[in-house]
Amino acid sequence: MASHDQAQQAQQQVQGLMQKIQENAPSAQQVMKMMAAITVGGALLLLAGITLTGTVVTLVVATPVLIFFSPVLVPVGTVLLLTTIGFLSAGGFGIAALSSLSWIVNYMRGKHPPGADKIDYARQRIASKAKDVKDRAGGYMQNKGDQATQGGS
Fold first, then answer.
1. From start to end of 1-153, where are the E strands?
2. pLDDT tens digits for range 70-127
3. Dist. CA 82–CA 104, nearest whole Å
4. Helices then strands (H, E): number in the chain?
5. Is residue 152 scored above 70 in pLDDT?
6. In angstroms, how far is the first alpha carbon of the chain from the final one?
7. Cα–Cα dist 70/75, whole Å
8. Is 107 exposed, middle or buried (0-12, 13-18, 19+ CB in 10 A)?
């Protein structure tokens, strides 16, 4: 009887373990995704290795040629670099000039381009200060004129 109970208990343990394994086992879709990921990853890893090998071989072969021709290649590279920088700068300045011109034209036509309110505010502040200076200067000149008139009589 004891051996029969032990066998039954062992069978229940095995069934419990099998149930846990089945619950935690990945689905067929998950297995397919993992296989696809391993295949793609392996192919990409192979391509990365081939690329690295090709780069190293090319560098080993090209280094003596580059060193031999460096007295010619360095000045040519410098000229090409400076020329490229010049063209890119000229293009950038041209775009900036066209953008500024477009903004000014829109502002003059009465449209309200971005930043126009700041320009209007600055203009009002300058006009206000100019009026204050004019009023003070007029008062100062009037005061000096009165003093000269009074002092002269």
1. none
2. 899 889 999 999 999 999 999 999 999 999 999 999 988 988 888 888 988 998 999 9
3. 32
4. 3, 0
5. no
6. 146
7. 8
8. middle
Per the CB < 8 A criterion, the answer to whether 66 and 73 are in contact is yes
The type of residue at 58 is T
Q: Which residue has the tokens 């930043």?
A: 115
Looking at the whole model, is its pTM more than 0.85? no
Cβ proximity of 84 and 90 under 8 Å:
no
Q: How far apart are CA 38 and CA 91, in angstroms?
A: 48
The SS3 assignment for 25 reads coil
- Tokens linked to 9: 């208990």
Take residue 27 and report the two structure tokens written for it: 């689905």
